[in-house]
What does this fold into?
Amino acid sequence: MGDSLRDDKWYSINKTNENGLIEIVEHQKFKGTFWERMELNHFPYDVQELSISLTTPLTINDIYFIENKQKPSGVNRTVFSDQQSWHLYEHVEFSFEQHREEYSLNYDQIHPVLICTWHVGRKCGYYIWNAYFLIFLIISASLGTFSISPSNSHGRLQITCTLLLTSVTFRWVVNKSLPTISYLTALDIYAIASIVALCIMNIFHGVVSYLYYNQIYLVSYLTPNNTQELQLSLYPEYFICRIDHYVLYKFGPTFNHADYCLSIENFWKINSCTWSFISGFNRACLNAGKTLLLTNVELPKIMTNNIEEFLEQTKIKTIEINRWIPTQNQSLEESE
It folds into this structure.
């Protein structure tokens, strides 16, 4: 029992039907501030046990408590003020104990204690949508890294590291609305497990990248027939048009703007670039005041460690593409 305790006491007399006995009932109303230690191991799905202990200066030789089974106890939930965050259960439990007065001259005296207990459950909808669901979305987004080619290992690691930092930052933000305790709650375990999962995914991508490039270096030690078959399995992206875009400066970005936009196309067998794509890309370059250069790089089918031999077998073709505009071309023809 806490501060501002108020005690109202009154009596009622009822005549029972059995043997004409008269029943005298003492009523007491307590109003005050009560304190309870919370167990947050299952937070935010925790159910707290609230209890009040009632005792008397009389000993067990003078008084004893008997629960009236005919009049079950209950809780008035209509006056419960914190219904938005907690759910108050109607069930009430009673238990009886016996305590001694410690550090007292009357240590041998045993007093009866009545313990009244009821339960409240936390409403966890706020934490499910603002914590569990958002953490689940971050972990689900990391699964998209497996769609990236193993040759682009830096892209995989960049995305997973970004999600890892996002998860750690979100963890600190969530901690501000959680109680500060010395043990882990269910939400803490879930958040830490998600961070560990992202770390494991980072390690996995690093190991796959190491094995991938290790196999590439082993290509040069194989026979030509097996080399070509292994290249086709290690370089599936060569069947797709892979484009890297650059801008070419005459002296540098500090002196003037770039005059050319360079697109390096790496083909193995099939060119998958369409004219609609090239036309749209050329229009974007012209709007920026640049000329489009398409460079076709054909790598040798057999990889070798000899750089000179590799460069001799590599073929590079460059095409300058300009958009034909009728009004401008007609003026040029008339001037000529």
